[in-house]
Amino acid sequence: WDCRYVSKEEDPNVVFLSNCPAKRGVAAAEPPAVLVHSSVPFALARRNVPPDDAGVKGELIASVNKLLPDLPPPAEVRMMRWGLSQVRYPVEGEPGA
User: Fold this and answer.
1) What end-to-end distance do the CA atoms of the chain give, in Å?
2) CB 9 within 8 A of CB 16
3) Integer Cα distance of 2 and 10 in angstroms
4) Other C-beta atoms within 10 Å of 7: how many?
């Protein structure tokens, strides 16, 4: 798979996973790189916590390990806070959001 959405039933903390090398069409020999988007409720509950907080990293890594149990331990983890990522309140009309 290249990327997929994660349902609330699968995991309440993660909403999207992307297998970055596969998405870019890079050879399978490259180390895995997984992009993870947290859910809106997860992010909102932690909005006052620094983005590189070890506890937040640990929670997301645990969620990814549950979703992808065969994934090797991460060699590196970079956390980034997005100001705009997911539509929480859609805009009515055209073009909408």
Assistant:
1) 26
2) no
3) 18
4) 10
DSSP 8-class letter at 47: T
Pick the closest to residue 83 from 42, 43, 54 (CA basis): 43
The type of residue at 65 is N
**Residue matched to tokens 């060699």:** 75
Give the pLDDT confidence of 12-68 residue by residue, as tens digits: 999 999 887 655 555 665 667 888 999 989 988 998 998 788 999 999 999 999 999
> CA–CA separation, 59 vs 53, rounded Å?
10
Residue with tokens 């895995």: 32
Measured in whole angstroms, the distance separating CA 31 from the mean position of its chain's CA atoms is 18
In angstroms, rounded to a whole number, what is the distance separating the alpha carbons of residues 47 and 53?
11
Task: Give the global pTM.
Answer: 0.77
Across 5-13, average pLDDT: 95
Q: Can you name the residues that pair with 17 across neighbouring β-strands?
A: 4, 36
